[in-house]
Amino acid sequence: MSRTHSGRVAVVTGGGSGIGRAIAEALAEAGAAVAVLDANGNAAEDAAGAIAAAGHKAMAVACDVARFEAVESAGHEVAAALGPVDILVNNAGISPKHAGKPASVLEMDPAEWNRVVEVNLTGAFHGVRVFAPGMARRGWGSIVNQSSVAGKTHVGFVAAHYPATKAGLIGLTRHLAGELGPSGVNVNALAPGRIDTPLMRGVATEVNDAIVADTPMRRLGTPADVAAAALFLTSADGHFVTGQVLDVAGGWKLA
Ligand SMILES: NC(=O)c1ccc[n+]([C@@H]2O[C@H](COP(=O)([O-])OP(=O)(O)OC[C@H]3O[C@@H](n4cnc5c(N)ncnc54)[C@H](O)[C@@H]3O)[C@@H](O)[C@H]2O)c1
């Protein structure tokens, strides 16, 4: 692995599991010091511990991205321990299911809707609000928002809040690319297809089998597939790419 991210400091939200953990590991292997923020403090500790054990610099912060004060306080902790943050990956996300099934919008609990919006969409704003001012001041930064193919097209097996937030992240990404570009900050979104993580395992096997059959590359994605895309977008080589939504989906729902 080349040291494309040497000297950089990166924050990955939801970095304790699945895709976020793979991104945190890839950034660390590429030379970045990485702060793993996760609502599940043990998962964050576990991920940061594994990265440190592999000889890289990492720290864990228990942090619910839906709470602005929690992200603000995480920002102080990270700055004190690792220095100014150059890279932010807004990856934390939830997709509530009930016995493996999404709620129908006809019966959805408004509290569930609000929680998904607060974590998936407002959480990304909180990250930007805390970490982007320093990037803009220093004239270099890179932000990746974790959207989804479900934010671009109808996929059927998620509830209404999920695609609404993932589409919202695409709007946020385009806006931020315009607003922060003059300050040297690139902002992009990833749109993973079906990626084999704990989040996905809550869904019935038949659903995933049908997706594989409908995916030109004929497999589920891996967290490493998504991490490779995040690595490019946050590298110096990817810095002129901004405002884009990059599918990492094996051609699934190709538009
Ligand atoms: N797995 C897929 O097929 C897939 C596809 C497209 C997009 N995504 C997106 O990728 C991201 C990661 O998904 P994953 O599959 O790795 O999920 P995952 O459940 O394995 O990991 C998500 C992590 O986010 C953390 N988290 C949840 N709520 C949080 C909060 N409020 N604050 C901080 N951390 C919080 C969890 O503790 C967990 O460690 C999500 O945004 C998800 O929507 C996943």
TrEMBL record:
Keyword set includes Transport: no
Entry annotated with the keyword Oxidoreductase: yes
Keywords: Oxidoreductase
Pfam families xref list: adh_short_C2 (PF13561)
Coiled coil start-end: none
MF (Gene Ontology): oxidoreductase activity, acting on the CH-OH group of donors, NAD or NADP as acceptor
PROSITE patterns: ADH_SHORT
Family the entry assigns: Belongs to the short-chain dehydrogenases/reductases (SDR) family.
Designated name of the protein: Short-chain dehydrogenase
Biological source species: Thalassobaculum fulvum
